[in-house]
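job 3f2a | input accepted
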Amino acid sequence: MTHPKLENVLEETGEPSTTSSEGGSGLGLESHAHEESMETKLATLEESSYDEEDDSWSDDDTTTNEESSHRSASKHGSISSVTSAALGIGLGIPRYILASKWLVAAVLVGCMVLVSFLSFKYTTGEEQAGFEDQFHDYADEIIDQATANVAASFRVLSSFGKTATSLALFANESLTWPQMTLPHFETRASDFLFISKAQQVAFAPLVSDTQRSIWESYAQTNQQWLQEGIDFEYLQRSEDQAWNETDVPRQAQPIPASIWKYVQNNMPMVEKPQSSGYLPLWQTYPPPRESIHVNYNLLSNPMFADLVTTVSSTRSGVLSGITNDDLALFQDETAEPCPKSVLLQPVFESFEAGSAIVAVVFELLSWGEIFKGILHDAATPVMCVLHDSCGNSSYSYQVSGMETTFLGVGDWHNDKFESLAVASNLTSPSNVCSFTLQVYPTDEMEEAFHTSMPLYITLAVVAVFSFTSLVFLLYDLVVQQQHSTLVAAATKTTAIIGNLFPQEVHERLFSSTLAADKSHAAPKFKMMSMISEEDRQKGAAAGTADTAMEEGKKKKDAPIADLWPDCTVLFCDICGFTAWSSVRQPTQVFHLLESVYNEFDTIAHRRNVFKVETIGDSYLAVTGLPTPREDHAVVMVKFAYDCLTKMQATAQALELELGPGTSELTMRFGLHSGPVTAGVLRGEKTRFQLFGDTVNTASRMESTGERSKIQVSQETADLLIAAGRDKWLTARDTKVLAKGKGKLQTYWCHPRAHGFERSMSEMSDVMQVATPRPSLSSGMNMKSLAILHDTIASADGLGEGRKRSVHWISEILHKILKQILARRSASGWNIMLIKKMNDAPSSIVAPNGDEGRLAIDEVKDIIMLPKFDRAMVRKEADSSSVKIPAPALEQLDNYISQVALLYRDNAFHNFDHATHATMGVSKLLARIVQPELDYTKDKGRHFESKRVQTKAEAVSPVEFFAPSYSVCVGLLDHQTYADHTYGITSDPLTQFACVFAALIHDADHPGCPNVSLVNEQTELAVKYENRSVAEQNSFDLCWNMLMDDKYKDLRSCIYATDEEGKRFRQLVINSIIATDISDKTLSAQRKARWMKAFHSQSADGDADGDYEESNEEAVNRKATIVIEHLIQASDVVHTMQHWHIYIKWNEKLFQEMHQAFLDGKVEKDPSESWYEGELGFYDFYIIPLAKKLKECGVFGVSSAEYLNYATANRKEWEVRGREVVAGYVAKYAKKSGKTKSARDLWRGKP
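job 3f2a | predicted structure (1246 res):
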């Protein structure tokens, strides 16, 4: 069938074209002769319009002559020509179609220009609006706080004056005004200055001419206040600054004998008799730099004379204009010049109305202090211009965060910000001088908000429109090609129909087609409204605070509770905390929580957010109570964003102290708004609690949230939209399923993306401020610290993660080195003597002088640790005060960096694994416990002990290693503690050796088992006689590197004598060789040593024979085997940690073993027995090892923790292991072509 328009043409032109005798189309001269008439008819057709209402065609008026001419055309005209003309192809595109294409192109270009312009204007307007909103917030905060500060100065000085009146009334009645010295003036004045932000406070009595001689005599005999003030000031300074024994308080000089004044050239001169009286300067704080300033007649200064006159008439405090006259009396000459004013308050003889003014108190008010400390640290700079009506002058300040900088006299603001000025009067109208504060933004603040984003958005719009235009052109080309195809198809179809059917049938076919088209007309679609208004009814709160108070009066035992109808509740928790905490010890976990939540508390205080409680790693807070506020939702979102950024900064700062992976921790937040029932839940542990559906929903918002995101409910989103913060919100793609709530529509809240809070540069500043100075730098100058950090940064081949690991391990070893030096110092050694001895030849490199001896041959059953020395412990200084030479610290960092470079890029046996093992060693050392003794038993004999937590468990791991021997349970002395831990805790060198061994134990590991090296008879296997090949190689490489001359300063800190060096070497060897668990001979020897140490029997069960082992040997035997098991547990510590940690490292080990299989280093595909192998590994090594840690009784609850995790992981592996292995196969093993399918491994098929 053909299109109805085409059929109408065919109908009016007569019968279809006939085919020629040759079978081709009848394209003769007739078609060309009638071409003009056909074009005329087609033009008429194209002008017809389709009536959408009745679905019919309505033709425009055409002439009868044209119709008749078309009907009289030859019936044998070309059908192909008709078809081409009907489609507008082949006969030329009509002008109106070409015009429409140009019109569309012009519209696209115009829309592109218009939308680009509007987008640019809108985005720049949004940036400007954000800039102006932020500025107005800052301006309002500065003006409000500055006004409050000035008012507070008036109130506090008035209170000070009343205190002087009160003290005078209760003073010795034999003395009368002006003979008055305020007792403890310096103490009161110090508190006053802290509250009022003033620089100086002074007291001056009014002295009449007749009282002058009495006053001058009184002043000479009562000038002790000056020395008291000097002494008090010295004590205050010594508390605030580092104590210097050479710094002693100055002695007060005698004060002038007479009242005096300044004359020309600032020369002092005795004041002549004045009938108007005198106002001698008397008590001041801080005390004057020179005693000559006392008894200066303030009335001789015009400014003070005017102030006294004003005070006499107003009988209230008055603030002077800005002046610098005679201010050198009250300030340090080294202080930078800054505009100041004098606030003067009268002191009355009594509290009765109309009482005489007998003295004045005044303060020196620095305007810079008024504006200081108002904004937060990261606030961008704003300009403050202070105008003094008395001096008719202006003074400019720049307020940047908490600091204020005086720029100079005059109005320094940028004129382009004139329209944004915010002004207010800081003083009351009754004051003589009016001070007006005008706040303006600065260029720096504007630049923080004006970015390149509008330009990028505009370019994106242009790109979209350009792409659309290109698509339109391509589409037009495709349509034209389709039209050409349609012409050919229509020509053939029409020819066939014309040949097969008579004309009447042809017309009926077209008629039926049109009828079918009408019956299947496209339905009219109507837009359905998707917006439904929800009426939120807010009833009045049934129980208000006043009602609760009245009920409390009626019934004292009534619950303290109330309903708060408008609140926003926040829940947040730390993502990844569970797995992270399983690797750390409890002190590290609590250190993180305390650091993070203390920062949150600070933010909550600043934001006026009410913190309810912390539950584990969750934090609960609420706004809208106890003080109702309309913007509770907005404030809570800002609080959540502040906490999110602070969490990221704090985690980054704590990574050095808490170990690698800490910086990856982040938060997720959930917010919901609604009514909350809040009150005090009384009981044994009374707490303030929140109840209600709002709290439950907020908890659901948090639990269904995502990392580093703030999720809010629909109710909270509605409040934010009502507050004009709709741009903060992004609806989640799908509704969340909340327990007990069903499906809820929630939103992500992104305040930072729309101009809220800080720019990225400011955030980096905050992080730098939040980052604590590493304790590694204690006692070092900045140059040494820079060299130390450059050493790590310059290590080629170390990524950022490994550099952080190097720094963390260096921090741990640095702490133990300080304890080693503290112990050595207590025994009489010093650094220079140690260095001198280490420069001499030593036999430490190869004990007993046997250069050819293998490390494995040096393994001993008993390593003799030093005996406990009670006297030395008493003399031992605090290790935190010990300073390690900078070269040694530099060498320590360099050595660890070089060890890191020795590790190969294996999947498992790499430097990250060494770091993880080091973390395990540090955790176990930090969890060593001390016993609770029963002193009814003999101290020298074995005793039953109850494990209790030590002081070491309350400190950071890098601060533990060698616990202080203070008595934690009141029953333990140092000697017994050392014996109970087998001497491990009494020797810092032993702890250093344990950490050092964990660091180097897999250096240069080849990535395959020892048995593979032995079977291949590699050079290393031959060198080490097929025994513990990888372990001995790691030790020799790292030990020989330590013996290099460039590490001699480091060695001098580690050991001072050959005896210490040999013991250090022996401990490291025993520890590293202990990690070879595949050697059956070594395993049997270790088992026998364990049995002998803790079961008093040899491996074969026989008695030890006639030899009776001394108590010292028995203790050191236990210490030796415990150290070996400590390093063994740390080497596989991932198997005794959280399931996620275990799977992470298990996959790495599988990857390494599979790669070794692919490389031909191992014969058996690990995937074939990995599931069963792990079960056997747990049953025959991991769980027995964990039980031994518990059996030795040294590691307290950590041993139980390890055993619990090992048992739980073993059960979990038994259930999920096949599935896990199948995942390994799908990820790593398929490319080998030698493994079973993942499905078979999952199902356990052979």
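job 3f2a | The longest helix spans residues 95-169.
job 3f2a | closed
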